């Protein structure tokens, strides 16, 4: 294959031609589809002159005709290749009409227009619109869209596109048509089209200015009873955005469509959001608490994009975090207001540390604003999204809520209707508050996770306490030496009584609040506090105020003290996680040298006290007592040596089992105390009870006695909601007991007609720690309900085994690596986006022992040698091997 071209931020130039309007006429047929587009185009005289050709993007289509200002173009007046239509001699202003034939039914990449079951739908971000018609497929070309859709009336009674419905009619041949017009300019990645036989749940929302907006959620008819929660979430999102940001919805109608075949979670197309069905469909019998939480979060995220992504969009794809980092921050704040703020913060940081920190330390490390890419699809990453949100959160922390709101108000006022860059957003924040963010911008241009080391010194005679911070950022593939970052560090000091001390920095006339934000700017800085009556224990990085690795030199006793006393619930949780991780890392070392593992009694007692603490939120307790996962321990282990999956599994299994044995009666009591007393409710208090009850169930399952397996099977059989049912089945799936297989079979028999519940069935079998799991996964590839063409099924079965079952995937035989490579090669020809996401599991192959390294490298090289390797997979594999 030819080496794919790298695109660089430094090479960005505005387009040579603007498109002011685009009128689409789409005739949907069973074998092929005709798309006629009419563009009104004008030259960008700042970038082009009369010698500059018009170059449009397009692929996988047959050009039927082309007309310039109503005159047909002969074949010698234009050129086409696999990706472009070039017209050399065009006037300064003109109309271009093209007609193309495409085949959505054969589009397994799920980019552009494709079939999902019995419906047509689109996914145009990042560069899918070029699979529909010829167009300058880039986000800074913003046009007003109108779209007429023609289709069979019986098969496709619902025809949707962006904007407002302006006309419709029937045709004599059994077809019908509708016309949609979007009054707002948008880039082509926000275009959407849906056609199908769908049920519609309708509601209305009255905006703060008194307008009534029609709300419609479209799903397949069999799912009509699973839309209510999504509608409730949408209404809450609209109300919250008005109150928190003053943003009112701007169209007459807001629509959501649930689709089974979808590469992403959802897509914020203007006025017509297309969703992966897993983020819309829910009822207590089929969806877990986590599913409900995610539906509310994703519904909100895509709605919030209406202003942070749609009304103000991207100048180029390098600016992706401008919309995604900002909108993730907004959806995190929304979820925090709807549930428990500390628990939400813990959940978000767990994702960041488990996925983004390793990305920062691997071959795909890139800044929040990447400097280059081969395939944009590969940069929908945790760095762009989650770290991007952390960067926004730091701005919020530095400015405070009122200052941040002033900044967003100015941003919306200045840039509505524009395609802008990250500089414009940060500039609005700075200008609205008189702030200097010039150094802060390094968060967008430097990859890697900064490491902050703290040294402490207490002077009892002078009652002063000094903290010296040093920061450094490890080298990444793109940059060896990093400049110091602007890092906000939220700090508190705890006395021996566990109470927060008032904080007074030297030079201040009186004490301030008990939590202060220190701003690190230099490679090394010292902050001295005065009037400190005793040597305190510092609570550093409260609320995880910056995405850094903290090296504070805490002793085990200090960690236990913070775990018991810290008023900042995030740091309280973090202290416990650090303490448990240190204990298990010691166990790993013992196991590797053949020493019998042993769990200290004080850790068991600390665990017991937290479990029985009635003053704490139950969701928080469940988070606090969920031990670091094997994957999280692998990340910590890699900091000082090779990852040993076998020792990690043995150490964690020993820890969990020992806790279960020592605290059996406590877990049984917690389980009994937190049974649901009434019908299932999606409320924070009820979710907390279930999470704590099922945490206890998971620990009891590690006892693996016949009595325990019968007890867990009883919960499975009696459960009246999916949260409890799948929790019990998940515990059974790891147990070698007689109840296991009948429960798995019963679950399938009950839910075989529900595609989303079956994804859970595939995933829990793939994640099982029992011998023979890989053989089971291979057998499930042939199951009639599995399809390699469906991304959700791929993620549920292949993704769960390779990404969520590290002990079995990293078996020393290398069988797991060969299995993954086989699937990646197969997916490469079907759906390159999903293939590249699967192969990324091998990115950290160099952090394992020599034997596993060799086995993983062999499979990476085999993938790299695949004929017709996609750009998506090539980019990931070539960087992993480099």
From TrEMBL:
<dbReference type="InterPro" id="IPR037144">
    <property type="entry name" value="Peptidase_M1_pepN_C_sf"/>
</dbReference>
<dbReference type="InterPro" id="IPR027268">
    <property type="entry name" value="Peptidase_M4/M1_CTD_sf"/>
</dbReference>
<feature type="domain" description="Aminopeptidase N-like N-terminal">
    <location>
        <begin position="23"/>
        <end position="190"/>
    </location>
</feature>
<dbReference type="InterPro" id="IPR042097">
    <property type="entry name" value="Aminopeptidase_N-like_N_sf"/>
</dbReference>
<dbReference type="InterPro" id="IPR001930">
    <property type="entry name" value="Peptidase_M1"/>
</dbReference>
<dbReference type="Pfam" id="PF17900">
    <property type="entry name" value="Peptidase_M1_N"/>
</dbReference>
<feature type="domain" description="Peptidase M1 alanyl aminopeptidase Ig-like fold">
    <location>
        <begin position="448"/>
        <end position="551"/>
    </location>
</feature>
<keyword id="KW-0378">Hydrolase</keyword>
<dbReference type="Pfam" id="PF17432">
    <property type="entry name" value="DUF3458_C"/>
</dbReference>
<keyword id="KW-0862">Zinc</keyword>
<dbReference type="InterPro" id="IPR045357">
    <property type="entry name" value="Aminopeptidase_N-like_N"/>
</dbReference>
<feature type="domain" description="Peptidase M1 membrane alanine aminopeptidase">
    <location>
        <begin position="229"/>
        <end position="443"/>
    </location>
</feature>
<keyword id="KW-0645">Protease</keyword>
<dbReference type="InterPro" id="IPR024601">
    <property type="entry name" value="Peptidase_M1_pepN_C"/>
</dbReference>
<comment type="similarity">
    <text>Belongs to the peptidase M1 family.</text>
</comment>
<keyword id="KW-0482">Metalloprotease</keyword>
<dbReference type="Pfam" id="PF01433">
    <property type="entry name" value="Peptidase_M1"/>
</dbReference>
<dbReference type="GO" id="GO:0008237">
    <property type="term" value="F:metallopeptidase activity"/>
</dbReference>
<dbReference type="InterPro" id="IPR014782">
    <property type="entry name" value="Peptidase_M1_dom"/>
</dbReference>
<dbReference type="InterPro" id="IPR035414">
    <property type="entry name" value="Peptidase_M1_pepN_Ig-like"/>
</dbReference>
<comment type="function">
    <text>Aminopeptidase N is involved in the degradation of intracellular peptides generated by protein breakdown during normal growth as well as in response to nutrient starvation.</text>
</comment>
<feature type="domain" description="Peptidase M1 alanyl aminopeptidase C-terminal">
    <location>
        <begin position="556"/>
        <end position="882"/>
    </location>
</feature>
<protein>
    <recommendedName>
        <fullName>Aminopeptidase N</fullName>
        <ecNumber>3.4.11.2</ecNumber>
    </recommendedName>
</protein>
<dbReference type="GO" id="GO:0016285">
    <property type="term" value="F:alanyl aminopeptidase activity"/>
</dbReference>
<dbReference type="Pfam" id="PF11940">
    <property type="entry name" value="DUF3458"/>
</dbReference>
<keyword id="KW-0479">Metal-binding</keyword>
<dbReference type="GO" id="GO:0008270">
    <property type="term" value="F:zinc ion binding"/>
</dbReference>
<keyword id="KW-0031">Aminopeptidase</keyword>
<dbReference type="InterPro" id="IPR038438">
    <property type="entry name" value="PepN_Ig-like_sf"/>
</dbReference>
<dbReference type="InterPro" id="IPR012779">
    <property type="entry name" value="Peptidase_M1_pepN"/>
</dbReference>
<dbReference type="GO" id="GO:0006508">
    <property type="term" value="P:proteolysis"/>
</dbReference>
